Amino acid sequence: MKALIVYGSRYGSAEKISQEIGDVLRNEGVEVDLLDSRGLKKFDTSPYDLVVVGSGIKVGSWTKSALKFMENHQNDLRDKKVALFVSCTANRDEKLLKEAQEKYLDGVAEKYLINPPLATGLFGGVIDPDSKFGIMDKMILKMVKKDLESKGIDTTKPYDTRDWDQIHKWARELIKN
């Protein structure tokens, strides 16, 4: 089996998740290619049995480059096993989790894929106060920071909501289907 993992990452969380998924698949005997979607135009997906597309979420949106990859390859992906994942901190709240699944995964799959995805993964993200945020990010971080602090979380340190065991399990399941 040969897998392609394409990711869009702004601050590195989706990239790290993609690398981890690739490592798990390789350990299971899968040949894996990992590509950053930035600057990726048309790419030959024909050698791949499985295509995993992932993105970090910022201000409620996928990265433009990851969406563009799916848009440009919509017909190519029709005959492939395709899995989608996002990296966002919505997994810290049950209500946000449901909304994020619908918007970031189900809605994106419906818009950009011809067939339903093999799997979707809503993985956590990292809120890092040392990241170089833009003005919009800083405003959102300010709101999130108050919520986190009310839950006793130290917002002066990176807050990582990624569940690596969940990510590993999800990756292993991809090759069982």
Automatic annotation (TrEMBL):
- One Pfam family it belongs to: Flavodoxin_5
Q: Which InterPro entries match?
A: Flavodoxin/NO_synth, Flavodoxin_dom, Flavoprotein-like_sf, Protoporphyrinogen_IX_DH
Flavodoxin-like domain location is: 3-175
Name its GO BP terms in alphabetical order. Answer: heme biosynthetic process
Q: Which GO terms label this protein's molecular function in UniProt?
A: FMN binding; menaquinone-dependent protoporphyrinogen oxidase activity
Protein's name according to its UniProt entry: Flavodoxin domain-containing protein
Organism per entry: Methanobacterium alkalithermotolerans
